[in-house]
Fold these 2 entries.
Entry 1:
Amino acid sequence: MKAGNEKGMALITTMLLGFVAMAIVAALMTFMIYGKKTSVIEERYTSALEAAKGAANYIMNRLSTDQYMESDAERMICVGETTLCPCYRVTWNPDLNRLECPDGKPVDRFDLGSYSNIGDYQIEAFIIHKDTTSGGYDIYAIRVVSSRIDRPERAEIDFIYRTSPPTTP
């Protein structure tokens, strides 16, 4: 081989090794950036989920203590577009496939009051279904939705909760 060819081969080899090294570095940087984004998204989702869990605990606590309240004003309130009433008075209308207050107007969610905003999250709690057993237990199917006010993070929890039958004094 001629001396000029060896220098050319060395240059080509060096350039190839440089491109391979750059590709490896680019792949590692991409992996690190997307890995960090994923962990930030998971952290935000976890925050939204914790806010939803807090609202679910609040709802269960309120429903379990409603029977001991002296007035309807102290009880958990269910709301619709044009009405509100204490949740224990809500019944399922199978003909219209909806929940209704005693006045026949539909309701679909709980009034969470000051708990409708927890930190940066807006909380909504929907009543999917309610049934009363022959033993006097109220069974609620509930969906709690927690969404961040300024970002798209969102968490949903669906659960079923059974209250104790009303006690007679």
Entry 2:
Amino acid sequence: MKMKLYQVINKYNELYNVSNVRNNKVLYNISKNKKILMDEIETYNKQADEISDKYVEKDENGNNKTVIKVDEFNGNKERILKFKFKEDGKTTYEKEYLDEMNELRDVEVDLPIRTIKFDDLEKDEGKLTPMEMDAIFFMIEE
């Protein structure tokens, strides 16, 4: 099944919250798909770390440096990355970082997603929440 990396991350997070399935075949396929998705996410994370290493300042422990930004309208605080400065000393690499991360998120991958038949969900009829049905919908073959 083809999907973009940002979709891989979303699908994994959605499947992670599915808990009302009782059919062992469906449970097995969900578990296998979570592993397939997680393997792809680990590769994504390594690439994202390489992008961060190029453009984001690091602290003494090698972690990304962040700064706290306060929204002037509502006072909400947000932790944001502290980007390295370019040679001119005035501008940062924020745009380059965002461009490369967006390009990475849009990479299309073809994954061996395991499917289930709608009939396999009969045991779970009435037990799955709408959110859980949405999460496994991409796995259902017609």
